[in-house]
Amino acid sequence: MSKLVVLERTKLYEEVWAEPVRTVAKRYGISDTTLRKHCKDLNVPLPPRGYWVKIAAGKHPRRAALTKLKKGESDRKVYRSYPVYRRPQPEGLEAAVPVPVDGEIVVPDVLEEPHRLVARTARRLSAKRHKDLSGCLNIDVSEGSRDRALRIMDALLKAMDRAGLKVEATTIEAKVEWPSYGWQRQEPPPPRQVTRVCCDEEWIEFSLSERMKRVEDPKPDPPKNASSYYYQRTTYSHLPTGELSLRLENIDYLGIRRVWSDATRQRVEGCLTTFVANLSKVALAIRLDREERAREAAAAAEAALCREQEEHRRYLDQKRLDQLRRDVEQRRAAEGIRAYIAAADRLLRCHDNASPEAIKLRWQIKWAAAYANRIDPLAAVSQRLKQCEEAEE
């Protein structure tokens, strides 16, 4: 269910200067980035970097004053907040033992004696022609960040080898996302190039990529004879930012951390130790999720079987009910015919003669009696019961 959120400018100013933005954002049920955007819209100043460190040290830094609003600006913001579904972590992750890492993983400044997969990837990426990336690491970075990415991967793979983990760069068959229909021809998807590590008998895929920034290309001047309706298509270029992200690929919606990115206060190089130690937790989450899916599939199959049995029982009941109704109607019709025959017999006793009408009525009585026995369901049952009694005698 959505809820209506009202942000008042004065109240929000007091809250963000009394507690960190992240704490205030949790109270409103939104992210800190969203709250910063709301503060910008309401022209609410935020504490600068290092403000809370000075507060913790016992200092009293100066607050930024809340400026007056200009004419036409609002002092409140109303919006509707919709809850975001976040899958909870599988139960039992506390039992995961971190992967033993021999000290802090340090990324060297110069790539020396690289790992075999790093050396192969470096050779393939440096080749200008015929770039066959089969068997290479899953690295998607610009040329300016290539050396740094290779050094990060080299330190990461060597740490995994020291921890006894198996690392490989291989090709696996891609899964078909949507089924094909008779009228639709679907080509099989190409195989995927993945880099994965085996931890506790679970394969965990990971990659290293660079964030790209989309920039609008400048539009050329229109031709001199162009009309007022002249349209120029907007094109964009994607420029590398140098910000790298170490990402786990095959643990979507497991409720655990899957991305380590460059930020203001952290670099990917400083997250490698945590990344390797966290692999056992990731492997346990994958196994628990697979077992949970298996239990859900078994429960769904059992429920489907119960529904099928119930539907079959209802079908048989309806079939028997329809037959019973037909038998009742035929029995009622047979009883009506027999009542007619009895009345006709009484009439013939009163008028016993050989007239054509009497002959016709006697023939009709004979035929009606046979027809009544033929449509009466109990007559056939009575006949079979008599046959069984004669057989027993």
Strand content: 15-25%
Cα distance, first to last residue? Answer: 78 Å
The domain count comes to 3
Mean pLDDT: 87
Q: Helices and strands: which structural class?
A: alpha+beta
Shape: elongated
Order of helices and strands: EHHHHEHEHEEEEEHHHH
Number of separate helices: 10
The percent of residues in helical segments reads 40-55%
Number of strands: 8
Largest sheet: 6 strands, mixed
**Mind telling me the C-alpha Rg?**
41 Å
Poorly predicted ranges: none
Output the keywords.
alpha+beta; two-stranded antiparallel sheet; 10 helices; 393 residues; elongated
Describe this structure in words.
- With 393 residues, this protein is of the alpha+beta class.
- The model has no long low-confidence stretch (mean pLDDT 87).
- The relative contact order is 0.08.
- Helix content is 45%, strand content 15%.
- The chain is built from ten helices and eight strands.
- The protein is elongated.
